[in-house]
Every structure is written in structure tokens, then in C-alpha cells.
């Protein structure tokens, strides 16, 4: 996979994260408080993992000791933090060379285990991990009478990749 493809996938991620959060905003909190809270927990989990892997890619420590935070951020907080994080990825990937993408990076998992992956594998993990959890959020949105966004690359490429 080349850098241009990675950047397109990151732009897709930024778009669909935003669309998903917009759909969550439209869920009636009084009728679906528990499911809406779970949606926010899942979106926050995506964000925490994104931040963890951004730190891993640049070889820095992160402050997380779990794969979610004790507090649940608001939709508005997630809109800002998720977009900023993905913007960082886009900027960072644009600055990477093919050798940087192939570099094997050692890191520690939050449970204390040791791991190593190439930067490209970390980027792929981050992208696919979010897709998996947004699928669960989309299902919950539907369970609450909402309309989940079309979380498909073809819609992004056709309508939003300008």
C-alpha cells in the first residue's frame, strides 16, 4: 500500500468517525441513555487505541493504562479529539518514507506485554480496528431508531473525497 492510499483511508476514517458521531447526537438520550452511553464508550475506545498507536509509531510513551478511559467524553469532545488525532495521522503519514512504513517498531501493550509491528501494520491495525467498532455503533444506532451512516469506502470516494 502506498502513502496516497493510506492518506485516502485516513481521510475516510476522519469522515466516517464524524458521521457516526453526528448520528449519535441524534439519538434521544432520555429514551436510550444506556445504549447511547455504550456508543460513546465504543467511540472513545477507538480514539484511545488511535492515540496509543500514534505514540507507538513515533516511539513515545503514552499515558494510557487501559483501552478506554474511566470517564466518558461527550460527543462534542470526541468530535474534536478524534478529528485532531486523525489529522495528526494524515500529516505524519505524508511525512513518512517507504522505509519508515516498513520499519519494525517495538512497543509495550497496555497490559504490559511486549510487541513489535511495522509502522504499516500499526496503521492498518488502527484503521481496521475503528471499522470493527463503528459497525457495532451503527447497529446500536439502528436499535435506537436512528439511521447509521453508510460506513463504506465507496460512498466516501464517490461523495466526499474531493
UniProtKB/TrEMBL annotation:
Keywords in alphabetical order: Metal-binding
- Stretches that traverse the bilayer: none
Q: Looking at the keywords, is NAD present? A: no
The Swiss-Prot or TrEMBL record describes its family as follows: Belongs to the DinB family.
What is the designated name of this protein? Diguanylate cyclase
Q: Which organism is it from?
A: Mixta calida
